[in-house]
Amino acid sequence: MKTFHVTWLTFFVCFFGWFGLAPLMPTIKEDLHLDKSQIGNIIIASVSGTIIARLLIGKLCDTWGPRKTYTTLLLIGAIPVMCVGLAQSYTSFLLFRLAISIIGASFVITQFHTSMMFAPNIKGTANAVAGGWGNLGGGVTNMVMPVIFAAIVGFGYTKAEAWRYAMIVPGVMMLIAAFLYFRYTKDTPAGNYDEIEREVKVKGKTDYSVLKDWRVWALALAYAVCFGMEITFDNIAALHFVQEFKLSQGSAGFWAGVFGFMNIFARALGGIFADKVGKKYGMRGKGLLLASVLLLEGAGLILFAQAGSFGMAIVSMISFALFLKMANGATYAITPFVNEKNVGLVSGIVGAGGNVGGMLFGFLFKSKSITYVEAFGYIGMIVIGVSLLVLVTRFTKKEKAAELEVALENAA
């Protein structure tokens, strides 16, 4: 449990640093004279580096261990977070945003570590709670960073200086988290990898034949439209509320934070329900649950796009946020069981799918011919389409074959 709590808290800090710039974008847009296309590119960059990082990090978790992997990621990621204030142009800011995006790979380590620490019957719940409370950082940063920004302005600094100094805070938080993670966690309940000589056991473990398994790609698609939409909304919500409903930067950050704050329970609900459904109906039941919450997420997004008032926009946002975050939890209640001998690799692929979704959605918000409102509507339709694909995917398809393979290996 010590490892569990340090893990979700560290993930929270990573999300805080990853999206610390999002609620400050109205000020940054003015300071760096950014247009809609450039902001779209920044959104794309903010999730792009994570795609490659997540694939690599899955392999490192399998071989190097989550403790060393997480500590290294935190130390490296803190550098661009604290130094982004040095950006003086669109190009330099874009490059810093791309570098910061590697922090998103922290999710794979979080899910891998909780999968290692808990029994199969509560693995979905543990993954969902750790992921949800960590994702909560995306909501809290939307609420807190404008306050830090305002406090710095209150000390006499200009707005252009304040957003730069504000980013030092999440960078320092990441350095503290690196120390806590290395000092107070273990790779497995039995001890760290080097203590139990795990490196010897896992040589040649990663089997890239999982890339041929459609179930892995179905989960990656599902995660692309739930988590991918979450990080897109974390990036764009404050700016959308400022532009569409003329809110102040502080008020926009608060309401954008409400979206992220639902992670305190919504993602966990997805994992808990998936575990309960799994006990009664197996993996097929988990798949049906995932398809259902994705369908409801898509419908909620379409309602959000059609909202004619700020009040209706908030109500529909809360609705689609609930099902979106439940879908996040339900996805990772299935992921650890698709190929139990390659949990790290499968988690990395599915996690990278989330960032691919966020990157592709960024192109919609970049387009000068599509408004933000229209983009939300299109994404809602895409989510509904993916829910139908998940519905027809048989997650139980290869279970018996896998059981036979394990039995034969044990016999040998």
List the helices and strands and how they pair.
Blueprint: H1 2-18, H2 25-32, H3 36-63, H4 66-83, H5 90-100, H6 106-117, H7 120-154, H8 159-166, H9 168-184, H10 198-202, H11 214-245, H12 249-261, H13 266-306, H14 310-338, H15 343-366, H16 372-392, H17 399-411
Tell me about this structure.
The relative contact order is 0.16. This protein is mainly alpha-helical and about 400 residues long. The protein has a single domain (about 1-190, about 210-410), classed as Growth Hormone, Chain: A. The protein has helices at about 1-20, 25-30, 35-65, 65-85, 90-100, 105-115, 120-155, 160-165, 170-185, 200, 215-245, 250-260, 265-305, 310-340, 345-365, 370-390, 400-410.
Helix content: over 70%
Into how many domains do the coordinates divide?
Answer: 1
Tally of separate helices:
17
Please give the alpha-carbon distance between the first and last residues.
36 Å
Q: For the residues shown, what is the average pLDDT?
A: 88
Strand proportion? under 5%
Q: Compute the gyration radius: what is it?
A: 21 Å
Coarse morphology: globular
CATH homologous superfamily designation: MFS general substrate transporter like domains
What is the chain-wise order of helices and strands? HHHHHHHHHHHHHHHHH
Which runs of at least 5 residues are low in confidence (pLDDT < 50)?
199-203, 399-412
| SSE-based structural type | mainly alpha
**Which CATH C-level class is it?**
Mainly Alpha
Q: Please tally the β strands and state the result.
A: 0
